[in-house]
From TrEMBL:
InterPro entries assigned: AB_hydrolase_1 (IPR000073), AB_hydrolase_fold (IPR029058), Pept_S33_TAP-like_C (IPR013595)
Domain of life, per lineage: Bacteria
The entry's keywords: Signal
Organism: Kribbella ginsengisoli
Protein name: Alpha/beta fold hydrolase
Keyword Plastid attached: no
């Protein structure tokens, strides 16, 4: 969130509100002026200014209780002050002040912050704003019973964390800091904050930019948008990479085959996860839909088609690795400390905001009957995935929401059909956002009449965190209310590596292209491909897991040793059964440089080097060995 000139704090706190323009009446809450919010240098970063604003806990029926809102301001860096940008974090429940503000203020919003203050707010019940701590629910207790315990722990405050309350908190902050019209920046569920603020306080909004907004108003309670979009997304992802495109002519059809195969015959076996730990697994359609397809910044989706093809040919290892990384037996979902992410806030916000298939105030038995009837009426399939796999209860499923375990108020952000006019608006979607696809983002955009809608190629969740182009366009729109030339958004910037296939042996790998040296036999060219893919696979696994130890697909280890010139160490790592790579790599920015030793399938031992760009669209690594150089696509 950004914040206007601190000198403007002396401005009047009783600014007139413009009428809200909607198709249905949205109540305007009358406010009384509040004291100015005193700011002082933040203890951990004095260039930021911190303050706390008490706001009514119960906004519908104020009773004197308050909740402290933590606010941090990055003051404008230039000589001219021109208001403020307000921002917060999504989740819901994630804290913007856990460190994200230190990147967003001076770096992500460098141009905007020359003239605008950036105001960061932890929403009520989040971070330093009295984070809700429901211990069992926070640390992965039983999905429904621990959610009910959290509701009971909150008592009469359970319904006080709606997005309408959060939006009115933002208005109190605006007044307390003395700003006029403000710009709004909302990623993910914070897009709900900003959209709802705009609906309730239209006259106080200069512009709004939301990225991958998690729409709630007007959405399908079964939230079937992601599985319906996956086939198209996987096709787009694979077509963008020549080695994947060449080896996988029908990604959509392969996904349909895999879902049907796991539906009729779940895969049982032992998978080795990215840390090298063994898991006895049953890979179900449910695990595919609710686990693999959401693994690590679409690393799971980037490999699932190739893994399905391998399974089709009798090789389950790649799919078992993907499943091992999301194995529910790894333990319940533990969200760590409430300071970073409050699962209690997620529950309280979700259960009052979201549309559900039951009457939120009905008795438990009635709620269950209503959900069951709604489920029965649903179509059997959501794209390639059955409703039984997608709408599955518990940790590995989405439905029914844990809210069904308790009674809640129903407080939509604004009435269905609301149309907001007169506010410059930009709504961004990530082309490859597997959880919030563009079809969901369009629902939010439809509430903002005349909004600019932009799908950013190759981007996942929250496009401006994936694409420098998207970040530049976001800032340009805040400053000028105009996108200008947005053609750069059609050029993907942040690839992951997609293997063309998962060959069992070197002989099954495609041959690399030779660049120089004496003509190489086909088996040496195939070995060059496997060496490159082994290195790329190891780096990708290291990038997508938490820790410093990873494993080769079919054996060996990859470790990270800090302080070394080439800190990525490969110890007999295997991508195929018959070729093991040992060596050391440096990976800085987009460049890879290293050396390796391999024992080839013919028994000879060879040393060589690798260098070139990695994770760059259209790029290739150069593998040099035996006086020859080969090109292996690194994307």
């Amino acid at each position: 969130m950004q914040h206007a000139s601190i000198a403007a704090v002396v401005a009047s706190l009783t600014l007139a509100l413009s009428p809200i323009v909607t198709t249905a009446a949205v109540p305007v809450v009358q406010r009384t002026p509040r004291p100015l919010l005193a700011l002082s240098p933040c203890p951990d970063e004095p260039t930021f200014k911190c303050g706390t604003l008490p706001v009514p806990l119960n906004r519908r029926h104020p009773d004197g209780r308050t909740i402290p809102l933590h606010v941090e301001v990055f003051p404008h860096t230039g000589p001219i002050a021109d208001g403020a940008v307000f921002t917060s974090e999504g989740g819901p429940g994630a804290s913007i002040t856990i460190g994200g503000q230190h990147y967003q203020g001076p770096t992500l919003l460098a141009e905007v912050s020359k003239t605008r203050d950036v105001v960061f707010i932890d929403q009520r019940g989040v971070g330093l704003s009295a984070a809700i701590n429901c211990d069992a629910w926070q640390h992965g207790g039983p999905f429904y019973s621990s959610a009910a315990q959290c509701h009971d722990q909150l008592g009469d405050t359970a319904n006080f964390y709606s997005t309408t309350d959060v939006a009115d908190d933002l208005e109190d902050v605006r007044r307390a800091l003395g700003y006029g019209k403000i710009d709004l920046l909302g990623p993910s569920y914070a897009g709900n904050d900003m959209l709802t603020y705009t609906a309730r306080w239209t006259g106080n909004v200069r512009s709004i930019v939301i990225g991958s907004p998690a729409a709630t108003v007007g959405t399908d309670p079964f939230y079937a948008y992601p599985p319906k979009a996956w086939a198209g997304m996987l096709t787009s992802l694979c077509r963008r990479t020549p080695v994947c495109d060449a080896a996988n002519p029908d990604p959509a059809g392969t996904l349909y085959w895999l879902a049907a195969q796991l539906r009729s015959k779940p895969l049982k076996g032992t998978g080795i996860d990215s840390h090298g730990v063994s898991h006895k697994l049953t890979v179900t359609e449910n695990l595919l839909a609710n686990g693999i397809m959401f693994y690590a910044d679409y690393v799971g989706p980037s490999e699932v088609i190739q893994a399905a093809t391998a399974l089709r040919h009798g090789d389950p290892v790649p799919l078992l690795r993907l499943a091992a990384n999301v194995d529910p037996a790894n333990g319940p979902h533990d969200s760590g400390t409430p300071r970073e992410e409050s699962r209690g806030h997620w529950l309280a916000r979700t259960c009052v905001d979201q549309p559900v298939q039951w009457d939120k105030g009905a008795p438990a038995a009635t709620r269950q009957r209503q959900y069951s009837a709604a489920y029965k009426a649903e179509p059997a399939m959501y794209g390639p995935v059955s409703k039984g796999a997608w709408a599955a209860p518990g940790y590995a499923g989405y439905q029914p929401l844990p809210c069904i375990a308790s009674t809640w108020e129903d407080r939509p952000n604004f009435p269905v059909g609301t149309k907001i006019t007169g506010v410059p608006a930009l709504v961004m979607a990530g082309e490859l956002d597997f959880g919030l696809p563009p079809s969901v983002v369009r629902i939010a955009a439809d509430s903002l009449v005349g909004s600019k809608q932009l799908t950013v190629a190759g981007s996942g969740h929250i496009p401006w965190l994936w694409s420098g182009c998207a970040a530049d366009l976001m800032q340009r729109f805040i400053l000028t209310h105009d996108l200008g030339d947005a053609s750069c958004a059609q050029v993907p910037e942040s690839p992951v590596w997609l293997p063309g296939s998962f060959p069992l042996t070197t002989a099954a790998a495609p041959p690399a292209r030779q660049l120089r040296g004496p003509s190489a036999p086909a088996d040496l060219r195939r070995a060059a491909t496997v060496i490159g893919w082994t290195l790329m696979d190891g780096l990708q696994e290291m990038a997508s897991i938490q820790g410093v130890t990873s494993a080769g697909l079919r054996g060996g280890a990859v470790t990270y040793q800090d302080g070394q010139d080439r800190p990525f160490r490969f110890d007999r790592a295997r991508f195929t059964r018959d070729l093991a790579v040992t060596g050391a790599l440096a990976w800085e920015g987009k460049d890879v440089d290293g050396q390796f030793t391999v024992k080839l399938p013919n028994g000879s031992t060879v040393t060589g080097t690798v260098h070139g760009p990695y994770r760059v669209y259209g790029a290739a690594l150069t593998i040099t060995m035996l006086g020859r150089s080969f090109s292996v696509p690194s994307h």
